[in-house]
């Protein structure tokens, strides 16, 4: 390998890291701005949040079947349950020779995201919605929604993890639509149960999607040393 060829992998890694940092900063600015509005009790936002919670919980009380569905979904979309299944998916893909580093990327990204969402909650310390006749209860702080953030993290990561295995366009479109619907239903679940304000779930989705996409920007086209051009003829699919 010539000196010029040896410099190329280093430059490539630097570009990837640069992309990841830039994307991460953009997400941090957006989420921080929303958190600032929440912390400062920005009146238009607070009034919109409060009105939405009142209307949503009224609908839930009037429809017992809807309430039961929402409570069941709340259990199914619990972050612990999601990450157990996601970890098993990572383990399965890790056993595939060409998806080893991709599986490791997915697992580490999800674990970092899970902890980051908790950290932001303790930084912002927003109280949960106060509902006169609550339909459900949840402990801890409100912003961002942990269910929304982790559903977004898990769904987005799983789509990216299995992307190389989805050869047909229809399958890829279906996977993206299914992931988006899963996140949407989880967000609505939190609002209609009255345990999160709309701005909480928006913050959770922004944090979750931004984290995964920033992480993927730093990972995509990455190759471990054993797969550099002078020692292998192919790389992990992206």
From TrEMBL:
Pfam families for the chain: PAP2
Domain of life: Bacteria
Keywords, sorted A to Z: Membrane, Transmembrane, Transmembrane helix
CDD domains membership: PAP2_like_2
tRNA-binding is among the record's keywords: no
Entries under SUPFAM superfamilies matching the protein: Acid phosphatase/Vanadium-dependent haloperoxidase
Transmembrane segments: 20-38, 71-92, 104-124, 144-163, 175-195, 201-219
Domain Phosphatidic acid phosphatase type 2/haloperoxidase: 103-216
InterPro entries per record: PAP2/HPO (IPR000326), PAP2/HPO_sf (IPR036938)
Name of the protein: Phosphatidic acid phosphatase type 2/haloperoxidase domain-containing protein
Taxonomic lineage: Bacteria, Bacillati, Actinomycetota, Actinomycetes, Micrococcales
């Amino acid at each position: 390998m010539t000196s010029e060829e040896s410099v190329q992998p280093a430059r490539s890694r630097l570009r990837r890291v640069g992309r990841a940092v830039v994307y991460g900063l953009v997400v941090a600015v957006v989420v921080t701005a929303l958190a600032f509005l929440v912390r400062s009790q920005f009146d238009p936002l607070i009034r919109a949040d409060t009105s939405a919670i009142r209307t949503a919980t009224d609908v839930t009380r009037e429809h017992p079947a809807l309430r039961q569905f929402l409570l069941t979904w709340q259990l199914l979309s619990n972050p612990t349950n999601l990450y157990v299944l996601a970890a098993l998916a990572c383990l399965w893909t890790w056993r595939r020779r060409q998806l080893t580093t991709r599986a490791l990327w997915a697992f580490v990204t999800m674990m970092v995201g899970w902890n980051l969402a908790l950290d932001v909650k303790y930084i912002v310390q927003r109280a949960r919605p106060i509902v006169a006749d609550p339909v459900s209860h949840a402990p801890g702080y409100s912003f961002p929604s942990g269910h929304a953030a982790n559903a977004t993290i898990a769904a987005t990561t799983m789509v990216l993890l299995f992307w190389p295995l989805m050869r047909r366009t229809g399958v890829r479109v279906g996977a993206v639509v299914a992931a988006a619907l899963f996140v949407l239903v989880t967000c609505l679940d939190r609002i209609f149960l009255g345990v999160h304000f709309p701005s909480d779930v928006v913050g959770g989705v922004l944090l979750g999607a931004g984290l995964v996409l920033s992480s993927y920007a730093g990972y995509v086209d990455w190759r471990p040393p054993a797969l550099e051009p002078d020692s292998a003829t192919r790389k992990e699919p992206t």
